[in-house]
Amino acid sequence: MDPRTPCLVGVAQLTVRDQPGPEPLALWETVARQALADARLTGARLDSVQIVYTDSWQYDDPVARLAERLGAAPRHRAYSRVGGTAPHLLIGEAAGRIAAGEMDAALVVGAEALATRRAYRKAGEHVKWSHPADPKPPYGWERGPHQAELAHELFLPVHTYAIMETARREGIAEERATRGELLSPFTEVAAVNPHAWHRSVLSPDELVTPGPDNRFVGWPYTKKTVAVMEVDQAAALVLVSTGLADRLGVPGDQRTYLRGWAYAEDTWEVAARPSLGSSVALGAAAATAFSRAGLSLDDLVALDVYSCFAVALRMACDALKLDPLDRRGLTVTGGLPYAGGPASGYVLHSTATMAGVLRDGGHGLVSGVGMHLTKHAYAVWSSVPGGRLGSAEPVHIAPPVPIVSAYAGEATVAGYTVAHERDGSASKGLLVVDLPEGGRAHAWVRQADLLADAIDRQLVGQRVRLTTDGKVNTAVW
């Protein structure tokens, strides 16, 4: 075997349930030291330190602060942008540099302390963590929302993903039932995962039936079926060259190999997607990852399909031609709604867990989704080396549908959601509509009777009439 072949040899995960807990820097340090110990490595031996963007706190120089604590002087440093595919991109870059002989050892780490931030807010206090950035840098997304999205307040994932869900035109009762059946097995996996944030087995009905403790967060989604971001969790991975693993004496069954991975993009704006309810880009990323790995879906012993919202799972199952109730299951952790969805860092947890599964042998798939189902990354891991890595170069970029910011006239509903307040009341409808002459627009629905109608029946395909004040469009029917 080529001594430059990269392998994952050290993993660590941490969940802190007692709030307030440590700040992200302390969480990074803790899991980094645990992963280094698992890899039989010291911080001084690291050639690369990479950190997944944290929403919890903006440090002045996060990589330098962590490296100092670890006694590391890495010549390669990276701090990612926002998005659920960020861990894939960091892992892929580290593996690529190791394979090219540019370095021997890399640490990839991520942490969130959003539950602690919430605890401070509830107590009326402000966090006073170390080394704050001054001035505070811009938010870490690669591209901000479209002006029309901002005008219509369409930027929260609980709304954008719900719009893509309704665009699939499944009946309301059918969608609700299949969502419960899809996600209930996730709770069973989370229940036996010591790192999971929620560890209770829930029935399909318990997940989808609205109530005081399970309100609609973006109709048709209930709170118990969406990613939980306000967690205190951290994870770390250590990748090394096979040559270094040999010198360190890392056992063969502790080495997990990245056989192949791929990245693809849909449009950044939901309304601009060629199809609101499906994704060619997702399929391209998955197919390319399998091709590079020299494996197929049937070869896998385990999967972790990104599960921030049900529509992400449904689209992935469509693209992979995978039964949503496949006997292997769709997660090794319990998924983002139950194991925990620490902002951009979940894939570190799914990869660390997958590495543990594959220490018994076999191949596994870990997928990631970024922004509003915009970014897709698929990675095939294995106990057996082989395949070819690939790169972050997109294998598909979806062509955008034009967005018309202000529009008056007839249109057809392409996808929609009904936003709800914390008390469970419906506040407004958020529509994406197809325009007669091509392109799409956004619209609000404000009338109470129309909101009730939108919740009671499938509105996709409904003809509506839009008026506009030049910034916000309003729909009636």
Can you describe this structure?
This protein has 477 residues and is of the alpha+beta class. It contains 13 helices and 16 strands. The chain has helices at residues 24-39, 62-70, 86-99, 114-122, 147-151, 157-166, 172-191, 204-208, 242-248, 280-293, 310-320, 346-358, 448-456, and strands at residues 6-15, 48-51, 76-79, 105-113, 216-218, 221-222, 232-241, 257-265, 302-304, 363-370, 375-382, 409-420, 426-434, 440-445, 463-468, 473-476. The strands form four sheets. The protein has a five-stranded mixed β-sheet with strand order 1-7-4-2-3, sandwiched between helices. A five-stranded antiparallel β-sheet has the order 14-13-12-15-16.
Tell me the Rg in angstroms: 22 Å
By oligomeric state, this entry counts as: single chain
How widely separated are the two ends?
Answer: 66 Å
Class from secondary-structure proportions: alpha+beta
DSSP summary, beta strand count: 16
The amount of helix comes to 25-40%
Number of helices: 13
Indicate the proportion of strand residues. Answer: 15-25%
Average pLDDT, rounded to a whole number, is 97
Labels describing this entry:
single chain; 5-stranded antiparallel sheet; 30% helix; globular; 16 strands; alpha+beta; 5-stranded mixed sheet; 477 residues
